[in-house]
Write a structure and sequence with these properties.
Structural class: alpha+beta
CATH architecture: Alpha-Beta Complex
Low-confidence stretches: none
Number of helices: 2
CATH superfamily: Nucleoside Triphosphate Pyrophosphohydrolase
Radius of gyration: 16 Å
Oligomer: single chain
Order of helices and strands: EEEEEEHEEEHE
Number of strands: 10
Length: 158
Amino acid sequence: MINCTFENGGKASLRHVVVDTIVLRENKILLAKRTKKILEGGKWGLIAGFMDRDEDLFQAVEREIFEETGWRVRDITLFRVKHWPERPNEDRQNVAFVFSCNAVKKEGKADWESDKIAWFSLDSLPAKNELAFDHSDDIEIYKKNLKQKLQLPILQKI
């Protein structure tokens, strides 16, 4: 949580904004195996991270993907917004903007946050208990969207 003091002296705990990305290439999804040093370490996850001050959502997506994988992307599309405070395994009640995009060019290396990055077929993913947070839900909804063309972005009331 972010502790904040407002101009009138009032105090509040505010939530973080994160971007989660479904990075695609040749009908495969890019996942990162999170280093043991961070929350949900040792599990596979979507490429994700906190939105920085002075950047918009699209800049955050591009930066996080490049930092964590070295890939450049295009066709960034808002897919889903996760806003409920009871998200599993979260310690900060993050509000997540989930995007899909296409990887186009590898120009860099993965940073310290991942022990490994790998491409997976949508039909051959790690087991649900091997995926961090609620990222398996995002992937399953994405796969459902491929078949049914859901109305995007998805914003559910839980």
